[in-house]
Please model this.
Amino acid sequence: MKEKDLKFSKDSLFLVTGGAGFIGSNLCEAILDMGYKVRCLDDLSTGKQENVDMFLSNPNYEFIKGDIKDYETCLKACESVDYVLHQAAWGSVPRSLEMPQFYCENNIGGTVNMLEAARHCHVKKFVYASSSSVYGDSKVFPQKEGYEGEALSIYAVTKKNNEQWAKQYAMHYGLDTYGLRYFNVFGKRQDPDSTYAAVIPKFIKQLINNERPTINGDGTQSRDFTYVQNVVEANLKACLASHEIAGNVFNIALGDETQLIDIYNSISKYLNKNIEPIFASPRRGDIKCSKADITKARKYLNYNPQYNFAKGLEETLKWYKNN
Ligand SMILES: NC(=O)c1ccc[n+]([C@@H]2O[C@H](COP(=O)([O-])OP(=O)(O)OC[C@H]3O[C@@H](n4cnc5c(N)ncnc54)[C@H](O)[C@@H]3O)[C@@H](O)[C@H]2O)c1
Model:
């Protein structure tokens, strides 16, 4: 089933926190395309004004420039909202190790503010972004809900903590929370420029500019790279999930793994480039392999990813070439 076939009541209002970012802006776009109303809350700390400007002419879109660290802002943003899609957070494992206190205030404090505001405003569903990083050093492979290991970074701790808070809100306050553990998402509008940028947009931009990209490690590390449209599908389906499974977390991925070096070669081939990468030492806090078991999301959210890796990569490359 495609997103456009999912039905919400006519005047539904979605709040997307972090809506000026990569995943958030793709969510806003999909919801507007379906004809529903979207309110975006973002402080533009890592998000982009252009990801807001592109929607401003749509009467169904509203932007609040604000910070989830401020509870009053969260309350204002949640007013009359049916569904919260909470994406606002700072990503990046290495950056989290440089700024632990900020990650605590932003990713943990901000999420607790959002949960409390959503409870106060009686929203129908609270769907939030968690991360595959919560699996840490788990020896269970593919990674499966309920078999988490020790977190390997501050970023992972913030996401693990978010899940615990969301579960408490489901247990004690009847707030329907659903955690989506994203696995290495890629697609249009992902920022290639930050020092902490994800590999796919970074490789694409550097290869287009004839620069030599750096691969940390030997390139045999693998990830369950997931095209952003699959993540959009998961968020919308979680908004329709049953009350009985509130408080749960779900792997949102493709259920497949791809080695970094293979991605590098696929991008090079598509762009018709023959540039040798630089191999550097592995990054602190990174895991070697990641691949998700997506049975739980398939069963309870009716999640059925429409984009395999090759199709997602092709769409992504087309977008970067034209932008
Ligand atoms: N991209 C991935 O591969 C991936 C994987 C796992 C989890 N996630 C999670 O998904 C979510 C979205 O990630 P993304 O890749 O789109 O990142 P992004 O940086 O593009 O988007 C995050 C957005 O949140 C906003 N934001 C951050 N702190 C805020 C605050 N205090 N108040 C208001 N807005 C704030 C930023 O300005 C940005 O627009 C994050 O929670 C991230 O941890 C992403």
